[in-house]
User: What shape does this take?
Amino acid sequence: MPNAVKILVTDDSIVMRRVLGMTLGEDADLDVTATAADGREAVDAVATQQFDVIIMDVEMPVMDGIEATVEIRKQNSDLPIVMFSSVTSAGADATFRALTAGANDYVPKPSRVGHVTNAIQQIRDELLPKIKGWGRRYQRLQ
Assistant: This one.
């Protein structure tokens, strides 16, 4: 689709990258254009490709999502970044640090959902609307 929201999925888990790619790819309005396994790869991808929204994990090797967000903001102050990370006891602190670093939004990764289909449904219900909202807003700015 020509006006599909172009997405960069950044997560160190190949399983999560595949689940997100599969789930988001089911929607004709979304296009997972690229994936990155760590924050450094995400920063490099933003320097060479065009995206409408970035999905970013917080805890990753090489460069974490918060550091990557700071670096991406130096390249592009408007590109929406939605943090998508596991909720831990430090979840509130991670959310605050991510938003302070320049993230636009934060969605917790599915946890204790029992089955992968429940996790996929949670992604559809919580993450997908935010991707579309931020992505469409960004497309209008371009």
